[in-house]
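Quick log. Single chain, no ligands specified.
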Amino acid sequence: MSEPFENSEAWKSARVLSNQVYSLCRRSPLSKDFGLCDQLQRAAISVMNNLAEGWETLHIAEKRQAYNYARRSCGEVRSMSYLLLDNKFILVSEQNELLQLCIKTGKLISGLMRSHRSRS
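-> predicted structure:
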């Protein structure tokens, strides 16, 4: 039996990222921008859930696809962090923290992708 996805460093990092996004979206004035909060939260959730789905599937092609979706969603959160900064929803320090979480999570996902590439 393999380890549960909850033990994966990539999933743990995605969980921190999601919680950070939710924390930011609870604050005003960002909390009033329902469209942006919805998109940001969906992207963050996508990172976590696609990692879990990829981890749980037995098919390598599906695993790769799920991890690829997770990495793309991580990039989406990273991109939106600039919009948050430009529109003064967050401070430079908060954007840096969000960027670092996105970069860390993306690297961990890339590591998972590489580990499965070498097995095929």
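The chain is about 80% helix and 0% strand.
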